[in-house]
Amino acid sequence: MHKGARADGQHGTVRQGYGKPHRAGDPIEKENIPFVDSDHEDDCFGSSSPATAAISSSISSVDQENDTMTESQENLARAYVTRHQPTLAERRMQGKLTVSIDNISDEGDLIEEAKDKATELKLVDERARGLRRNSISLPSLNVNELETLRLAHQTQDDAVSMGSDSGSDSLSGETAVTPETPTTPAKFKPMLQFNDNSSSDEDDKPRGKNLFRTKRRSSIAPLPALRLNDKEMMSNDFDSHSVLSNQASITSVNSLASLLKEKMQNVPAIIRKKKRETKDYKLRVFVGMLFLIIVFLVGYAYVMYNQKLLAKSYFESIKFHKKTRNFRLLDGKGAELLTGVLGTSLSIEQPYNCLPKDLKDDGSVCYEWNSKARLYMNLAKSPGPPDIKCYSFQWESLLADLYPTDCFDVAEERGFWYGGGLTKGIEYILGKASIPAGPFVTGDINMHQWGNALKRYFLNSRGVAIQVDEKTPLYVSVNTDAGRRLCLQGRNDKFAFVNRQTTFSELKYTICTGPDMKTLHNGLMQKSLWDGLTERDNVVIKSLLREPVWQIPASKQEDLTEVAIYNYTESIIALDYLRLGHVLVNEFWQRTIGDFRLDSDRFPTLDETVNMLHRRGFRVSFMIQPFISTESSNFREAVAKKLLIYERESERSIPALTRYKSTTSAGVLDVTNNASIPWLAEQLKKISETVEIDSYFVDFGTAFNIPRYYQCSQTLVNPDEYKNYFMEQFEGTLNIFGVSSAISVPRPPAFLSLPPVNSSWSGLQSIIPTMLSYGIIGFPFLMPGPVGGDFVLPTQQLKKMYSYYSFGLPPLPDKELYVRWLQLAAFLPVLRFTHLPSEYRDDTVTAIAKELAHIRTQRVLPLLEDFSSIAMDEGLPIIRPLWMLDSTDVNCFSIHDEFSIGDRMIVAPVLERGETVREVYLPQGVWKDGIDESLRKGSRWIHNYHVPQNKVAYFIKMPDNTRF
Question: Phi first, then psi: what are they for 947, rounded to 5°?
C-alpha cells in the first residue's frame, strides 16, 4: 500500500460518488471542492471533511501557443484530482511536476479514465472542454456578497494556518517520490511522479505569500480580467505569479461553476489590495502637495524678506530702502557700483505712495514723506549706446526750509571720482577735495570753491556718471561733516539761485551706468560740434594750433601803447624759430572799460600799426567784455536806454553795479534785452571801421562778477547762464576765438582759457590737473595761460586772498621754471606767451626753445590736428588722462602729472624744482622713447627715469604688432 494511503477508510475513497449525479443534499459540492487559491489547500477543511480533493496541473503537456487541454490530459487530470490530495512538499515542487502515465497492470477505473475516448467523465463536463481560461468573465458582485465571500475566505485561512505544518513533508534528492495522498484502495497506484532537484536549504527560504495563487499553481496561465465596481481589472493588476508561465491553462476541479466560485472567493482579497493601493496613492499625492506648499511658503518668505526688510528693487539694478533711504546701484553681476543715502535732510520714517493727483504720466515711481518731500524715480532715455542705462531722480520739497540732499560715497574703495570742474585746491580726483556746501557756480579759484568752467557732470572709475539738471539750484559739498561723501543739494538762495524755478527747492539729476568708464564717458559726451561751422572758423582753429598767441604784457593802462605793440612784435619776428600768430591786446586798448573806442592818446595811428602787422603775417585780436565802467561815457547812454542789468525789485532805470578787474564800479549789459545786442554790435563795428580786427577774446569774468541783486529782462536760472545767452546772441556776428569762462562748450573756434595761475612751481603743477579736469567734463579745446604764469603773489603773508586782478603781471620768471613751463606748453593745444625766450639772453634757453619748436612742428602738430577733428566729431578732449587709453588699468586712475595727446603720445614733464629724474607710467602697448628713440613696454612703471634740464619726457605709441 502506498505510504500516503489510509486503510481504515477514515476519509472514504476518492471514487465515492464519482460519475454519479449529485443529490440535493450531497455535501460534496460544499465540502469536497477545495479553495484552490489558498496557501494551504490540504488542510482547509479539517478532519471533518468526508473527502478531500487534490488539484494538480500538468505543465509539460500544455502547449505555449494553445492553453486548451487535450481530451486525454483532461481525463487524466480529472481522475487524479478525484483521488489524491497533494502534500505541502508536492505543492512546493509544482513547477517541476511531470506527468507520467505508467502502465498499470491493475485493471481499475483509473486506466479507463485515462483513455482518449468518450467516457462518462467526459460527458459530465462536456461544456468546459476546450474552454480558454482568458475567456472567462466574472459576474458582477455587490458589496454584501463580496463581504460574505471575504469572511468565508478568512475563516478558511485561519483553519489552514493552524494545521499547515503537520501535514507536509520536506522532500529532497533526485529520486522520484510519490506524494502522500488520502486513503485509497489497496490496488491504487499513483499516476503522477515528480523530481525534487532543490536543496533543503532552498526549501527553508521564506517564500512570499501570494493572495491569489499558491506556489502549487505558479505555472498556471494568467487569471482572467475582473470587473469590480464597474472598473475592469486586468489579471496583471492582481496576479503576479501568472507571468512565470503563460503557456499552461487549467480547468476547474469539477466544472466551470467551481472555477467561478473559486474566483469569487478571491474578490475580497483583491478589494483589500486595491484599497491599500488607493490609500498609498493618496498618501503620495498628499506628501507632494505638502512639499509644493512648503516650497511656495519659503519662496514667498524670501521675497517678502528682501522687499520689506532689506530693500526694494527698482529697474533691475537699483536697491532703495524706503525708510532709511539707503541707496545702492548694482552692475549686472550684483556688485555695488554706487552707494549713498538719499534725502539726508529728512528724518527716518516710513513713506507712503503718492496720491493719484501727484503722480506723473511718465510712469515714475513716487513716494511722499509725510507732506515734507516727494521722490520720483524712473528710467531715463540714454543719450549713448544701448549698453548705457540711465535712471532719473527728482526731489520736490513741500516745505520752504527743507532742502533735498542726496549724498554718495567717494572714498577710494568706491572708485575714483572726477568732474564738476577745477576745485580750489586743484584736486584732479574729486574725492580728495574738501569743499563746504556752496552754490555750484563759476568763480575765481583763489577766492571761491570752483574755477572758471563748470559742468554738472561727475564721473566714477567704476562706470557710473551723475548729471544734474541745469535748472536745479545746485549746491555741492565734498568730504564735509558727513564723511567721505559727495553731496548734491537743491537749495534756493538770495544770489546764485534767487530766481526760483519752483515754489520750493527741487533736486533733479540722472545716474547712468556703462560697461566701463571709458565707454560711458564717450557715450555721454556732446557729439558733433560741426553744426554751423564755416570754413573761416576751421581756419582759425588750425591757426591756433599751429601758431602761438602773443599776449602783449601790460598790467596797467600806461603799459599798453602803440609803441609797446610794435616793439613786442619786432621781438617775435627776431626769434626766427617760432611762427607768427595771434597778437592779443587786453582790455586796456580803451580809455575806460566799456568805451568800445580806441584811446587816441595811446593809439594815435593804431590802424597803421595793425595794417603793418597784417602785412607781416600777424593776426590781431582784441579783448572785450560786457562790463561798462561808471566812468565811461557809454554808461549814461546805457542807463538811459535801459541796456544794463538792473536792481532786483526796482525800476529798470536803476542799474545793478559790480566790480570787474581794476574797475571798482561797473554795470553789466543785459544780453537778454533785445536792444542790448544790436547796441554792442554797433559799437564793435565802429572799431572795425577804424582798425581791422581779426577776432575777439571775450572776458565774461565769473558768476561772482554779476551784481548780487541782479535782475534781467528774462529770468536767468543762475548767473552763469549769462554766458550762454551772450554766445548765442553773438554767434555768427563776432569772430570769437577765446572765452574766459563757460558752463557749456563754446561754439568753435572759441577756445576756453584756463584760469590765471601764479608764476610759481605750484602754478606750473596746476596746469595738467586743470587741463585733464576740463577735458573730462566736456571742453575739448583749451587754451592755457602764458608761459611763466599770469601774475605773481606778494611775498608777504596775506590775511585774505584777493582776486588775481589786483596783482600785476609777473616779472621775468626764474630760468629753470620758465624752461620747464615751456617744455610743458610745447605739447598743449595752444602755445601762449607773455615773456619771450629771448628776454633771458641765454643761449641755453634759446637752444631749448628751438628744439621744442622743432618737436612741436614735427611731432606734436600732426597729432593736435588729427585729434581736433575727432574732438569735433565725438566731443572727446585733445588732451586726455591716461585712463582714456586703458580704463581697466587702475594705475592710470590717479596719475595727474602725465597726459596723452589723443591716444598716440604720452607726455611726462618735470614739474619740480631742481629735479632731473621722475617716475613715469606707460599704459599697455609698445612706446618709443622721445629722448633716446628706444622701445619700452607698457603696463609698467619706469622708475628714476632721467630727464635732463634741456629735455622733456614723451613717448610715442607704436603699432600693436610692434615686436622688440
Answer: -130, 100
Average pLDDT, the chain: 77
Report how far residue 447's alpha carbon sits from residue 263's, in angstroms, rounded to the nearest whole number: 112
DSSP, residue by residue, 721-737: HHHHHHHHHTTTTS-EE
Centre a 10 Å sphere on the Cβ of residue 571 and count the other Cβ atoms it contains: 12
Answer yes or no: is pLDDT of 902 > 70: yes
Which pTM value belongs to this model?
A: 0.69
Torsions phi, psi for 768 (to 5 deg):
-65, -45
Give how far the C-alpha of residue 670 lies from the chain's centroid of Cα atoms, to the nearest Å: 50
User: Tell me: the pLDDT tens digits for 74-124?
Assistant: 555 565 555 545 555 555 555 444 444 444 444 444 444 444 444 444 444
| Grid cell locating 700 | 565774461
Ramachandran region, residue 126 (left: φ > 0; alpha: ψ -120 to 50; beta: rest): alpha
Q: What are phi and psi of 271, to 5 degrees?
A: -60, -45
CA distances from 483 to 406, 408, 435, 436 (A): 13, 10, 12, 12
**Of residues 513, 417, 538, 435, the one with CA closest to residue 477:** 435
The three cell numbers of residue 486 are 559727495
Q: Which three cell numbers stand for residue 557?
A: 593802462
Sign of CA dihedral 435, 439, 442, 444: negative
Using an 8 Å Cβ cutoff, are 122 and 113 in contact? no
Helix (H, G, I), strand (E, B) or coil at 716: coil
Strand 736-739 vs strand 695-698: parallel, antiparallel, or unpaired? parallel
Give the phi and the psi of residue 215 in degrees, each rounded to 5.
-65, -25
At 557, the pLDDT band (50, 70, 90 cuts) reads confident
- Evaluate whether 454 touches 421 at the Cβ level (below 8 Å): yes
